[in-house]
Amino acid sequence: MGQAEATTFFGVAGATFSHFGKPRHPVVSHQDGEKRAWSVRDWLLCVTVLSMVCGIAGISSGAFERQPESVRACGMGGAGSAIAGNVWGALMNPAALAGMPVRIIAVSTAPSPFGLQELRRTACAYAEPFGRLTASVSALRYGYELYREVTLGAACGYDCGEGVRVGGTVTLNSVSIPGYGQGSCAGLDAGVLWQIVPGLQFGASALNWNAPSPGKSRESIPRTFQAGLAYAPPGGFLVACDIAEDPRFPAELRLGAELSVADLLFLRAGVSTDPSSCSAGVGVRILPLDIEYAFSRHQELGFTHRFGLSLRLGGP
User: Fold this and answer.
1) Of 179, 180, 178, 224, nearest in space to 63 by CA
2) Residue 219's CB: how many other CB atoms inside 10 A?
3) Phi, psi of 10 (to 5 degrees)
4) 179 is a domain residue
5) 95 and 47 in a common domain
6) Residue 177's domain is classified under what CATH number?
């Protein structure tokens, strides 16, 4: 780590620690005066922020972790790479955009992951169908005033016929640390969907497959891969299974299910491994508006709540 990188790292480290002000929980008093300890959440936030700053300084690649932004997928354990007609395909599997019957605009937010507002995620997406081709734009913001990531995406999905759909996304990833500057880079995603038999689909995607490097970082954003199956027999039931591979972490298995009641109420549940978590969610369709909620519970860090709205512009 060079002098400039060290200055950025220790400067943001100091700002992060001072962000919390006075410690909150007392511990045992000693003769040299009372000592106090931070809360577990304070330590979690500092470790998270400093690990991301290390990524900018070229120490590790901790930034721009790609997560499912779809509230539907979050309620199903994160599974969804093989589900077609997904407005969030630009950030998950761009081939899922192909074949959408109407325009859709959607927003989602996780205001306090693990109870920490500093880890807030907010995203929006818009998809416009042109026959077999569907175009989409999306935006994602993550972080707080001391560290912020923004990802902008432009994607398209194409229905090739014979049950095959393909797609691609170009992303602009930027990170900013007030007082220390910012860095950006362009990433490329690609995906495919294949209908094996009616009701059964296979999906796969490669995210950041060009391994871009933000700013002056010596390390690139890792390539991540995911693949899965989705089965929707007649009767309004859907099951999905994904495997996600990120070189920074163990492979993650995601399992989820959805039950549709009269195409108006949607009940969801799922589990995932590495990290181990369980999730559930609900969606309500009111004319052209879908209102969605999901939560997930990490085995050690606790709950994350997500909320979403999507509006269909035209069609039923």
Assistant:
1) 224
2) 18
3) -70, -30
4) yes
5) no
6) 2.40.160.60
Give Cβ neighbours of residue 27 (< 8 Å, ≥ 6 apart).
35, 36, 37
Q: Are residues 136 and 199 in the same domain?
A: yes
190 in the same domain as 49: no
pTM to 2 decimal places: 0.79
Q: What is the pLDDT of residue 208?
A: 93
- How, if at all, do strands 121-130 and 133-144 pair? antiparallel
51 with 163, same domain: the answer is no
- Beta bridge partners of residue 202, listed in sequence order: 194, 229
Could you count the other beta carbons within 10 Å of the beta carbon of residue 118?
19
Distance, in Å, from the CA atom of 314 to the CA atom of 287, rounded to the nearest integer, reads 11
- Domain co-membership, 92 together with 15: no
For strand 265-272 and strand 252-261, is the pairing parallel, antiparallel, or unpaired?
antiparallel
Does 273 share its domain with 127?
yes
Interior angle at CA 142, CA 84 and CA 280, nearest 5: 50
Please report whether residue 138 resides in a domain: yes
pLDDT in tens, 25-68: 333 333 344 444 445 555 555 555 545 444 443 333 357 888 88
Q: What is the spatial distance between Cα 48 and Cα 62, in angstroms, rounded to a whole number?
A: 9
Residues 131 and 75 in one domain: yes
Both 17 and 82 in one domain: the answer is: no
Give yes or no for a contact between 71 and 125, defined as CB atoms under 8 angstroms apart.
Answer: no
DSSP sequence for 124-190: EEEEEEETTEEEEEEEEEEEETTEEEEEEEEEEEEEEETTEEEEEEEEEEEEEETTTEEEEEEEEEE
Q: What is the mean pLDDT of the chain?
A: 83
In a domain, 189, yes or no: yes
Distance of CA 135 to the CA centre of its chain: 20
267-294 residue pLDDT tens = 999 999 988 999 999 999 998 999 999 9
- Domain span at 24: 3-29+36-56
